[in-house]
Amino acid sequence: MRKTDVLIIGAGPAGLTAGIYCSRLGLEVIVVDKSAPGGQLNIIPLVENYPGFPRISGEELARRFTKHAEAMGVEIVTNEEVEKLELGGDIKRAYTSRNIYEADALIIATGARRRKLNVPGEREFEGKGVSYCATCDGAFFRNKIVAVVGGANTAVSEALHLKELVKKLYIIHRRDDLRAEMALKQRLLSAPNVEPIWNTIVERIEGDTKVKRLKLKNLVTGESFYLDVDGVFIAIGVVPNSEIAAKAGVKVDENGYIIVDRWMRTNIKGVFAAGDVTGGHLQIATAVGEGVIAAMSAFEHVTGGWYAKRKKLKTVKIKLEEEEREGVGEELFKFKL
Ligand SMILES: Cc1cc2nc3c(=O)[nH]c(=O)nc-3n(C[C@H](O)[C@H](O)[C@H](O)COP(=O)(O)OP(=O)(O)OC[C@H]3O[C@@H](n4cnc5c(N)ncnc54)[C@H](O)[C@@H]3O)c2cc1C
């Protein structure tokens, strides 16, 4: 049994940021993750839209987030999946295969997963022409030929973003119409560089070092055929990792995203959520921002606020190595928090 002020589930951008803030606010904090820290960052080849880092690999950004959190005194427990939550009382409990954690406040930052097509080539070419995020990767396909797979609102908004960048955009959908808002649909289908391919599914993604073509199948005629593309964006949905939270009574919307208010509070007192698991724009910067809000709300919950003095706060010891100190005056590190 471990006891802490704040328990955070998920060591992605939202969870690690919340950890940094909690620790610097003087709270004891543990972040538990079922795999390595960094979350989805670990699978992003290149990030170009996180402020302060014009070009950085997802892996390197994950390493920096992790080192930053550790330097601020955050305890990160990896390879431990939270399987069950008990959120009814004042003390929140999380059960993993190895431990039971008790905390005064809980932050759920379990992220989301992209729904996969599960066809040959999809895994092999991920980051080499197969993408799940147009906002993230669209710029790499400027003036190229790409396809979007999917036909609902997500696919249409991904396609609307891409049509401005690419030379030619195919929309591949297994039905004969898009299931999206009329205005968006019309704007997309009237664009001169957009061509829908209806009643069609992707059978296989082919290429050499990167994607070259798609093997498609028309569901009406049963015929298979090839389409040459430089990239394919798979937009058949995102699944929030909210199952354990929902089971414990946290309210989710019709798509499974945790419902929060602007302070990242869920329907259960003392339980907060941040990042992709709450929906909206699924980006690193938004996850980070929500992590900050969740941490500050958790601080209010645990201590009653700065002046309530309900709790004795810890002293934060910053452990920065030389490379992290770069560009910052030594005197700053002599400052006592
Ligand atoms: C291919 C790809 C490219 C992307 N490119 C960009 C980009 O260029 N720019 C950008 O801003 N965004 C990009 N994104 C989106 C960005 O990665 C996410 O928005 C961001 O990682 C969300 O952070 P998060 O902390 O909410 O969740 P995540 O990063 O998903 O982290 C959640 C963590 O929770 C853990 N977890 C889940 N369930 C449990 C459990 N039961 N017990 C313990 N741990 C659990 C997971 O292991 C994971 O580590 C991309 C995403 C993908 C998939």
3D structure, described in words:
The chain is built from 9 helices and 17 strands. With 337 residues, the chain is α/β, with parallel strands linked by helices. The chain folds into 2 domains: 211 residues, 3-Layer(bba) Sandwich (FAD/NAD(P)-binding domain), CATH 3.50.50.60; 105 residues, FAD/NAD(P)-binding domain (3-Layer(bba) Sandwich). The strands form 4 sheets. Strands 1, 2, 3, 4, 5, 6 and 17 form a 7-stranded mixed sheet that branches. The chain has a 5-stranded parallel sheet with strand order 8-15-9-10-11, with helices on one face. Helix 1 packs parallel to helix 2 and helix 4 runs parallel beside helix 5. The longest helix is centred in the C-terminal third of the chain and has 20 residues. The structure holds flavin-adenine dinucleotide (FAD). The site of flavin-adenine dinucleotide has 38 residues, from helix 1, strand 7 and helix 7.
